[in-house]
Amino acid sequence: MFRKILPLAFLALAVTGAQAQSPAPAYPSKPIRLIVPFPPGGGTDILSRLVANKLTEVSKWNVVPDNRAGAGGTIGIVEAVRAAPTGYDMVMGQKDNLVVAPWLYKKLSYDPTKDLVAVAHVAYTPVVIVTGVQSRFKTLADVVTAAKAAPDTITYGSPGNGTTIHLAGEIFNSAANIKLRHVPYKGSNPAMMDVLAGNVDLMVSSLPSAISQIKSGKLRPLAVTSARRSTSMPDIPTVAELGFKDFDVSTWYGLFMPAGTPKEIVTTVNAEVNKLLATADMKAAVHAQGAEVQNMSPEQFSTLLKTDYQKWKGIVQASGATIE
C-alpha cells in the first residue's frame, strides 16, 4: 500500500510546487483605465488621450481614457484613490486636484501624498490669460485699469473652483490690487465657449486648452503666468514682465496609481512613459499643445508632489480662498 501511495504523494507535491512557481501573467495582460478628471476638450483631456493613444500604438498596451469630471477635478482623483491597487487603474493628475484642492476644499476625502503613488511625470505648461478678439481689452494693463475703475464687474472664467488656474486669477487679483469676479465652470471647454461668445470677459487657462483658439485668431492672449515665456508661443509676455515682479504660476500633469500598487508595476509604467516622452514625435505633439515634456523617475515625481503640496498650502492660506 505504501509503495502505491508514496509515488502519488510525491506527484501531488510536485504538481503543487510547479503551480506555486508558475510565473505571473505579464503586465499588462488586460486594458488599463486612464481616468481623466476633466471633461473632453480641455488640456488634461488632450494630454491624457495623447499619452493613451501613443502607449497603445508604440507599447502595444490597451490604454482606455475614462472621463470622470467635476468638482475641480477632485471626483476623478477620488475614483482613482478608491480603485484596486492592481496597476489597471491610473489617473492623469495635476497641480489643480493634487496640490491646490486639498487646501481649498474643507471636506476632501484624500491626501495625495498618502493615497496615491506618483508613477510618471508627463508635462509642464504655463497658464495663460486670454480674452476674445472682440474684447475691449488689448493688453493686461487695460484689464488692470478697468478693474480699478469698476471693481468686481470684470469676469474671468476658469475650469473650476480649486484649480491652479482659479488660484492664478486670485493671486493676480492680489498682486495687482484689483478685484476680478471668478466664474467657475466644469472644465476648460465650457469656459472657453463663454469667453469666445463674450459672456465672460477673460479666461485663465492652461495653454494646451487655449492654444488652438489662440492660433486660429479667436482668442487674444494677454500674458502667461509662468516665470518664463512659453517655448510654444514665445511672443506672449509673462505677467512678471508686465510689472508684477516674481509672479509665477504654472501647472504640471502626471500619472498616478492607487497607493499599494506593486513597485514593479510602477517602475514598468514609468519606463514605458519615459521612453515615449523621449521620442521626437511625442515631444512635438506635446509642444504643439503648448506644453513641454519632463521625464522623471517615480521618486523624483513624488518629491515634486510633496514639495508643491506644502508650498501651495501657504499660497492658498494667504489668498483666503476656501470651498465647501
UniProtKB/TrEMBL annotation:
Kinase in keyword set: no
Protein name per its UniProtKB record: Bug family tripartite tricarboxylate transporter substrate binding protein
InterPro entries given in the database record: BUG (IPR005064), Bug_dom1 (IPR042100)
Native source species: Polaromonas aquatica
Record keyword Signal present: yes
Top-level taxon of origin: Bacteria
Family: Belongs to the UPF0065 (bug) family.
Keywords from the UniProt entry: Signal
Signal peptide: 1-20
A Pfam family assignment: TctC
